[in-house]
Amino acid sequence: MPSQAPKVDPIRDRFFSPLETVEAWSSSFFLLSVLFSLGTAFFDEPSQKTLNNIAQWGQVVTVLVLFVLDLFIRLHLAPRAQDARAKDFLTKAYGAPLISQQTSGYYNHAQTGPTRRLAAQLFENSLFTKEIVGKMVKNASVITCIYVIVWITAVTNRDVPLSWIALCAQLIFGEQILARWLRMWWLWRRCEEIYNQMRLLYIDDQNSPRFAVIALDAYTKYESSKALAGITLSSKVFEQLNPSLSTEWDRHRAEFNI
C-alpha cells in the first residue's frame, strides 16, 4: 500500500481562506447587530432618546452590511470555492486538467480507472466530511442550546417585556444560529448516508455493473448536499482530526483493497 504524501491544498488558500475571512466578518457584524438591537430595547426611556437613535441607526447599518456580506458569500465566494474543489476532484478522477492549482496528498488510493478513482475519492471525502461536520455540530450545539435556553426563560418569565422576547426570537430563529445549526446537522447526516452508501458499495458491488451508476449517484448527492447546506468546513477542525482520519482511511484502503 503506497504511503501518503504530505497534504498540499492551494485551493483552500486561494478560495476558501477568503471565504472564511468574510464569514468571520459576517459573524462579527451579526454580533454587532445583536448589541445594537439590545440597545434599542434597553434605551427606551424618553430621556434616552439620543442613545436609542444611535442604537437604531447602528442596527440599520449593521443589518445592511450583513445583508451585503451574506450575498457576497452566497453568490460569489462560496460557489467559486465549491466549483474549484469540484474541478480538482474531477481532475484527479479523470486526469483532465480542469484547474491549474491542484491539491496533493488528499486522494490516497491505488485505483486506475476513472470511475474507480472517483468512487475511492468520494469514499475518502465522505469519511473526512462527516467527521469534520460532526465535530462542528457538537461545537455549535453548545452555543445554540444557550440561546434557546435564554429564549425559553424569557418566554416563561412574565416580567420580561414582549419586546425582549421578540428580540430573542429574532436572533434565535434567524439565519445565524438555529437555522445554521440545522443546516450543519443536515449536512452531517447526509454525509453519513453517503459514507455508508460507499461502504456498502465496496462490500457488496465492487464487481457489479451498477458500481459506476451508484458511485455517480452518490457523488451527485454529495455535491448537491454541500451546495444546499452552505456550510464551510472548519480548517481548524480539519487540522485537529486529520491525523486520526488519515489513519482510519488507511485501514479502509487495506480492508477494501482500494
Describe the protein's architecture and organization:
This protein has helices at residues 10-42, 49-94, 114-156, 162-172, 178-204, 211-229, 235-256. With 258 residues, the chain is mainly α. Helix 1 packs antiparallel against helix 4 (162-172) and helix 3 (114-156) runs antiparallel to helix 4 (162-172). The longest helix is centred in the first third of the chain and has 46 residues, at 49-94. It is elongated, with a radius of gyration of 23 Å.
The separation of the N and C termini measures: 9 Å
Helix content: over 70%
Low-confidence regions? none
Shape summary: elongated
Strand content is under 5%
Rg computed from alpha carbons, rounded to a whole number of angstroms = 23 Å
Class from helix and strand fractions:
mainly alpha
What is the element string, with H for helices and E for strands? HHHHHHH
Mean pLDDT: 89
**Main sheet summary:** none
Number of helices: 7
Q: Tally of extended strands?
A: 0
List the defining traits of the structure above.
single chain, about 260 residues, mainly alpha, 7 helices
Summary of the model, kept short:
The protein is an all-alpha fold and 258 residues long.
Which SSEs are present, and which pair or pack?
Blueprint lengths: L9 H33 L6 H46 L19 H43 L5 H11 L5 H27 L6 H19 L5 H22 L2
Helix pairs in contact: 1-2, 1-4, 2-3, 3-4, 3-5, 3-6, 3-7, 5-6
